[in-house]
Amino acid sequence: MATIDGREADGGFERESYLKTWQWDAASSTWNLNSRIDRPHGIHKVTALLFAVAPEHPFLVSTGEDGNVKVWRIRILAGKKREAEGK
């Protein structure tokens, strides 16, 4: 699962946004935070997310008000959880 979390700029603070990926833990029946990417589209808002679960190459696509489309590769590290990595 992937989500966008953040807050609007106010009182001298810049806008914040976080792209978060989550992994389901069947043993505890909870979603666990897997990775967090700060400002995935810089100071611009994320406008859409598409999470594709392909057997060999899972990936996440995001679009933003900056006019960019970004593809985030999900990789599995030996002995670790999945992590998102942008290109």
Write the layout of secondary structure elements.
Elements: E1 2-7, E2 16-25, E3 30-38, E4 46-52, E5 59-64, E6 69-76, E7 82-86
Antiparallel strand pairs: 1-2, 2-3, 4-5, 5-6, 6-7
Tell me what portion of residues adopts beta-strand conformation: over 45%
Mean pLDDT, all residues: 84
DSSP helix fraction: under 10%
Task: Report the major sheet.
Answer: 4 strands, antiparallel
Shape: globular
Number of helices: 0
Radius of gyration equals: 14 Å
Secondary structure tally: strands: 7
- List the strand order in the largest sheet: 4-5-6-7
> What string gives the helices and strands in order?
EEEEEEE
Q: Give me the oligomer status.
A: single chain
Overall tally of domains: 1
Helix-strand category: mainly beta
The residue ranges in which pLDDT falls below 50 over 5 or more consecutive positions are none
Q: Separation of termini?
A: 19 Å
Provide structural commentary.
A hairpin with a 6-residue loop joins strand 4 and strand 5. The protein starts with a strand and ends with a strand. The radius of gyration is 14 Å and the shape is globular. The chain is built from no helices and 7 strands. The chain is mainly beta. It has one domain. The model has no long low-confidence stretch (mean pLDDT 84).
